[in-house]
């Protein structure tokens, strides 16, 4: 289980870096780009905080926040794609990464709640 959590944290860092690189290349839409960068990087930040949770409920709360941030990230990706700021390939690849992280977060939250 610990290896899976570590991989999720590593994947969230790689995802945030990929988002950051894309954001650096987008001209205009600075408010949307900023929101995308904030939500994408917040996923990993909350996973990192969950590692040091004070209780099971604190752990679940941090994981659920990370889950919400992944959903928000997906929204900003869709918005920037529809505005023509992301190519179809960029959009698809980033949505796939985000979806993969989100599915693992859902599984982690579900497991943590059922083990409580």
Query: Roughly how much helix do the residues carry, as a percent range?
Result: over 70%
Structural class: mainly alpha
For the sheet with most strands, the description reads: none
Count of runs of 4 or more consecutive helical residues: 4
Between the first and last Cα atoms, what is the distance in angstroms?
16 Å
Structure description:
The chain is mainly α and 116 residues long. Helix 1 packs antiparallel against helix 2, helix 1 packs antiparallel against helix 4 and helix 3 packs antiparallel against helix 4.
Keywords for this entry:
116 residues, mainly alpha, 4 helices
Summarize the structure.
With 116 residues, the protein is an all-alpha fold. Helix content is 86%, strand content 0%. The model has no long low-confidence stretch (mean pLDDT 94).
Give the SSE map.
Blueprint: H1 2-25, H2 30-51, H3 56-82, H4 88-114
Helix pairs in contact: 1-2, 1-4, 2-3, 3-4
